[in-house]
Each structure stands twice: as C-alpha cells, then as structure tokens.
Amino acid sequence: MGRCAAVLVVCWMAARGGAAKAQSETDAVAPGAQTLLLWPAGAPGAKGDTAADKPQLTVFPPTSNPTRTAVIVAPGGGYQNLAMEHEGYAEARWLAAHGIAAFVLRYRLGPVYHHPVELGDAQRAIRLLRSQAAQFGLAADHIGMMGFSAGGHLAATAGTMSDRGDPAAADPVDRQGSRPDFLVLGYPVISMEDADVHRGSRSNLLGEHPSPETERRLSADQQVTSRTPPTFLFATTDDAIVPVTNSVLFYLALVRAGVPAEMHLFAHGNHGFGMAAGDPELGIWPQLLLTWMRSRGLAGPEVTGSGR
Q1: Does the predicted model carry a pTM greater than 0.85?
Q2: Where are the domains of the chain?
Q3: Is 250 helix (H, G, I), strand (E, B) or coil?
C-alpha cells in the first residue's frame, strides 16, 4: 500500500476512535482491505450478531485523489445475496487505480430485513463519509454512489429519498445530509410495479404482499425531483432478468426533472456483467464512466499505469 493510501486508512481509523478494530479481519476476496462498521456499537434494528447483521464499508484508497472524490459501491444480488467481488471489489479496485476513493457497502438483506433498513444502511454510509471527509482527504460534495442491479435500486433510492440530516442529533454522523452527489447505475432495478419489476428484489425488499402505494413509493423513477443527483446509467437491451425499461424509466424521469443524465444502452449482454472484462463491446462502459466523471470534475487525468 502506498504512503498516501496508508495515511487515508490511518486517518479513517483515527476519525472513528479505533472503531475499525471491531471489524478489521482480512476479507478472503479483498486481502488486506480495511473494513469499517457503519455503527460500531451495533446497527439499529439488528436481529442478530452475525456479519450479516453488521453493515460495513470495505475501503479501497487510491494512491492519490486529485479531485477528492469518493464512490460507495453497492453490489447487487436481488436484495438476498451480495455479489461482493463481481459487483463490488472489482469496481472498487478500478476506481482506486484511477485516483478515486472507493468504499464497498455490505448492507443488510431480505428476507430477514425489509425496507427501510437497506436504505438506512446506504444513508448511514453516505453520512459517515461526509462527516469525516476532511480526515479522509475527500470533498464533502464529491461523494457518490454506484450500484448494480438491486444495488442500483438501493443507490437510486438513496438519490431520490434523501434528507438534509438532523442538526440536533446526538450522533454527529446523523447531522449530515444523506443525498449522494452523483449516481452510477449499472443495469439497475428501478420499478417495484408489476410491468417492469424484478420480482425477487421486490419480495426480498418489501415482503410478499406490498401495497400498491408502497410499490409506487419504492419505484425510484416516480420519486425523481430536481434534487436528484446527476446520473450515469448503463444496461443491455436484451437483459432477461431486469428489463431495460427500468433504466429507461429512470433516465426519462431525470430528463423531465432537468437533472443531468447520461445513459448507454448496449444491444446484447447477460444481466450481471459487472466490469465486463474482455468483452470488446460491454467492456467500454468503465471508460465512458471515467469520461463522464472527468467532465464533471469528479476524476483527474489518467494515472500512469492504471490501465483501462
């Protein structure tokens, strides 16, 4: 680990008062990565004391971060599992290699946990980074969220159901706003209504028989306002798991609300393609994202030796 990367982790640990020690074991897929509990004293509403009951961030600090940008990555898995490597660690390593701090979110899942627990985990992650931005070498207004599939729904929900924080909260983290500054959505679940829904995600998040009002409220396209963050989307037209209409619905809602948006739809590709390494067509999305981020001042020039 480079000197700047090491300093970032040390600053994080100091900022949390040593709380990182409670969850510092090495991850088998991300060896040596530092993991940080979102609530060191125990997550609200926890139903057990296992790793699945303890939402956390895994830290991937870059060697340098010229724009002081951070991305929280939410893996997919239908709100029942988490594709931590395929839709989390792989993307985090790529972000860090391109001078962007990455934090992979392990959030709580159904059917044990239902909404609003998952949203609360995402909001806590955003507040936590924002509250300690100076210590991490981040800009408080450069904290975005990337999500894939159901993780894309979680990111979109965080972007459309945010708050400005509670200035009177006893916990200083809760005084921070929960709105991500930008969104990156990969083949996201967006709608919870029958026409476009991924039924597994809906049942795991909302239970077997959610009311029509709950389905509408958790359909992120129907919650877009002018405060929704700028968004980059990508998906495939022939996705057989999550209909591409989910991405289109969110994009159209963004356009109607006057929110800056960019969407890339590829003709072919299986759901869950992640970084699409080695695919000459789908594999260009990371570079397209980097171009978009640079245009918004969220990424610096190419880092020598960083690769694609």
Answers
A1: yes
A2: 48-295
A3: helix
Instruction: Mention every residue, 6+ apart, whose C-beta is less than 8 A from residue 146.
Output: 71, 72, 73, 74, 91, 155, 183, 184, 185, 186
Place 30 in a pLDDT band, splitting at 50, 70 and 90.
Answer: low
- Is residue 6 scored above 80 in pLDDT? no
Is the CB of residue 76 less than 8 Å from the CB of residue 147? yes
68: left (phi over 0), alpha (psi -120 to 50) or beta: left
Helices 150-160 & 199-206 angle (0-180, nearest 10): 60
CA nearest neighbour of 157 among 123, 128, 186 = 123
Q: Which CATH superfamily is domain 48-295 in?
A: Alpha/Beta hydrolase fold, catalytic domain (3.40.50.1820)
**Inter-CA distances, 105 with 38, 142, 146, 260, Å:** 9, 17, 10, 25
- Other CB atoms within a 10 A radius of the CB of residue 123 amount to 24
Cα-based angle 34, 117, 263 (whole degrees, multiple of 5): 75
Q: Where do the DSSP E strands lie in the chain?
A: 34-37, 56-60, 70-74, 101-106, 143-148, 183-186, 231-236, 261-266
Residue 304, pLDDT score: 52
As given in the structure block, the two tokens for residue 4 are 């700047």
**Does 212 score more than 70 pLDDT?**
yes
Which tens digit of pLDDT belongs to each residue from 46-75?
Answer: 999 999 999 999 999 999 999 999 999 999
Q: Of 196, 183, 200, 184, nearest to 244 (Cα)? A: 196
Record the tokens describing residue 40, joined without a space: 């060191």
Question: Are 155 and 180 contacting, i.e. CB atoms less than 8 angstroms apart?
Answer: yes
Look up residue 112 and give its amino acid: V
